[in-house]
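Re: the 271-residue chain
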Amino acid sequence: MPKHGYDAEDLARMEMTRVRLSHERDLLAMKLVQLASRFPDDRARQYANEGVGRRLRTIDRSVTNIFQLYPPDRTGHLSMEECDDVAIQLQAFAINVYALFDNVAWVCVLLSKVQLNPMKIGPFKAETTPHLPPSLAAFLSENRVRTWHQVYGKAYRDATAHRLPIYLPSRAYTQEEGARWTELDTALMNAVRHMGEPGTAEEIDARLERHHALQSERDNLGSNSLLMALTLNGPDAEKPVFLHPQVLADYGLVQELVVEVISSVPSHFRL
């Protein structure tokens, strides 16, 4: 992957994956509704339709919005407002991805007709595992799924919900660009301090022109960030991750989970 962008192969692969996932979501949504209609428990049916189904639709829409707001082949600089709009979609995406896993656990516990403390209900909680279909439990215990949950999924979800939300940095800089940005920013501050000093019309115009030139050069440094993060500094910092590939990987994992639910729930609960 190039330092400042995706190559043609990356771009083609991501677009093909995005389109495929969106198409497969439509089929999964239909199968999920059909499955839920067979549930004997009203609340389990509600968690399947209004929990898993609704979140699946929201996740799909968030992915579409992210790729429309920030196409991975975009070269022109994103504005701060555009970065904020991407962050809004990322936050909705992260919360709903994690919560969909929880909804699946609730569906299985409700179908099992067992009474568990709600705090003990979750896809990765030991108290819930015995009430999951064995193949679903096996899927959730796979090393890649556990690693996703422990290293990335839970960290990003918990931080977004309770501490520091996911965001898209407005710009990425090389070491040289970062040094130049600092020089220009310092020069800008000095220019602002001298802006109100008395002078001739020509001197004042020259100050304004210099200020504009410094600001323009500073604001045109760097490239769009390919990474999303929680924060880059301090004790709450987590390793930044590539935005577009990670979003697609998460969406793919969600769909794998829903496929497993549709496959394993009917026989396990004798529907």
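Strands lie at 227-228, 241-242.
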